[in-house]
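ok here's the first one, seq then struct tokens
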Amino acid sequence: MKIFYQTLTIFLILTACSKKTDPINTIFQNYQGENPGASVAIIQDGKIVYHESFGMADKENQVPVQANSNFRLASVSKQFTATAILILESRGSIDLDWNLDQVFEEFPAYGKTIKVHHLLNHTSGIWDYEDFVPDDAPQVTDTDVLEFIKNHPSVYFEAGTEFRYSNTAYALLALMVEKYSHQTFQDFLKTEIFNPLGMQNTLAFVPNYNEVPNRAFGYSKENGAWVRKDQSSTSAVLGDGGIYSNVPDLFLWDQALYEGKILHKETIEKTFIKGKLNDGREIPYGLGWHIKEYEGEKAIYHTGSTTSFRNIFYRIPQKNLSIIILTNRNIPEENKMVDLAEKVLKSYIAN
């Protein structure tokens, strides 16, 4: 691990020398100087071939974004929640065909038709808890999400008939991890995923329990000025978006997806396959990953958007190529992060 970070440091020094002529630097021009920033990396054939830091991680204290700055991943966290469930499934502790009324006591009647795998690929039809939480409410937790749903008598649609992205689903999955592992969600991730891979700076953040090292704080643009808005009423929910990480740690995770260190390769490949509805129609989502095509190749990715963070982890496995963009700002809109990653990708390929 020490050798890896030393190599990364040398690489960053060398790339800084050519920063002025770097076309990717131009793409992130508005992230530089006193602006909230970004950490951008390209991984090719098992190596970080580009990694640059832009702007400020902490404007008030003039702390710039650095190679090891930790950003709130938001929904990029979902791939780790899905992995935790699949680890427990591999051990026989969880069955993806369980109905939710088997898992959670006093769950509404519609839980009899919703299975665990419906949660994983966003076909459950369960209402999104964020619709119940005002922006100025006290922070809610995954357990609070379960209580909201227990008191809600209906669903958007019958499980398996439609695809609708659901943060609620991943909060429930985190609670399942706790119930069947007999550990807190944050501890399970640490002991079963982060520590085995050497991801020493990655964690599911729980105030007064752990601390985020080298933390990048979030900012929102208001009336032409950047205002620190790092947390919201939903920021304490872990399963759908509560993980912090940085580029060096996500590089280790990226490589583990090729090597089968945490899950068997066959299981990992299943997470990258489009799910199907009851009538056989495919959906553009696997297990914790969006799926699309990019110039004839399968691209798997996940964006992350929360109060003041916009991120994307974008992979083309057949090319052994990945793009990581972590930012601590509330613009652009989440769906535009795919365009931004592909803009970086095109620039890299062209040069």
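and now the second one, same deal
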Amino acid sequence: MSTAAVDPASIARPAPRRQVVAWSLWDAGSSGFNVVILTFVFSVYLTDSVGEDLAGGSTQATALLSWALAAAGLLIALLAPVTGQRADAGGRRKRSVIIWTCATAACITGLFWVKDDVSYLWLGLVLMAAASVANQFADVSYSAMLRQVSTPATIGRVSSVGWASGYVGGIILLLVCYVGFLAPDVGWFGVTFENEGMSVRVIALFAALWLLVLSIPLFLWVPEVPAAPKAQRVGFLASYRVLLADLKELYRVDRHAVYFLGASALYRDGLAAVFTFGAIWAVSVYGITAQDVLIFGIAANVVSAIGALVGGRFDDRVGPKPVIIVSLLGMVATSLILLFVSGPGMFWVFGLVLCTFVGPAQTSSRTFLARLAPPGREGQMFGLYATTGRAVSFLAPALVGLFTGIFDSERAGIAGIVIVLGLGLAALWAVHPPRDTAAVALADTPTRTG
């Protein structure tokens, strides 16, 4: 399969500012799912309230949610690379973002009908898993657009603006959730939790609307990529043969691109575990109240946004690898401190320090891959990025569970995250930074049609 016809000169021209803003606003909109639905609000409602009367209680409901998201992760791992590859070749990168964004919003909207009754648990689990798949597919093509709205000199700043927009979107949404629906006994529009969980269900509608509205500028203003010649495209199943051939070629041209996919999979699993278990540990280990966890989430998004913006500036000056290494070192050191300190005050201080390093690690990982990706194959590369991340997504949770069980202490589970971050850091240390010559060489290599 041939790459899409990308004009090399266009890669060096700055994109219009409104395209950068439009691209970044999608990240802010996606916080409707990532922050509100998946992390802080609806997942807690689904396991602690809807699943409370399940045999085994909320613990069993949490396990079922984990299995549902694991099944979604498997589907993403199998389909994301080919989905991104076909969007690149067919000139359907933006169309892919539109379709999967609307699918995500539809799934989130469906959560409104998940009432506070155990009989609705399975509906919630299916919709959460489906939304996770759709959101990840949208993110693959969205991230592939990064080089369309940036230049080699600005890619770090543009990526960091996108991540920071996502954090700001999360801040605004969490504030709305807290002030408008969760803190008062009677929320906006007269909704209450006692009315079959209506206050949380309305939040799902608001999150879906937020996603759609903030995605409209990208739909309108960011251009589509050119399609590859029709005769050089292949069918869906044949795309897997092309994918394997391209991976072999990528390894031959620059094996460190493949090494980066493996290294980033490790430390990104650690980053994901921080978000997955952070709120749980805040309450059970450090004594933070449930309402204060939401306030901490707002503060965490603020410092993560600042960290992402600062990291983006350094990314453009020194490259993404040093930024990621410093961020991982900071996270490992801070996690070790959290392993031994106690009390809400210590959690607030070192928890926010930890979040400061999360933003730069995330945004520079995206620019690292964008710099590595051959022109015209960004969607395919970010599909592989999603797949490799899912391939080891069991590691951090497994280690957290192992240490918790061995030492009979939830605090000991923090050591599991430290180990995964350390492994990712060690693997990344040996990876060479991006080389434009490798990307160009691969882009110029004829590909197979299966």
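notes on #2: The radius of gyration is 21 Å. The chain has one domain: 16-221+235-443.
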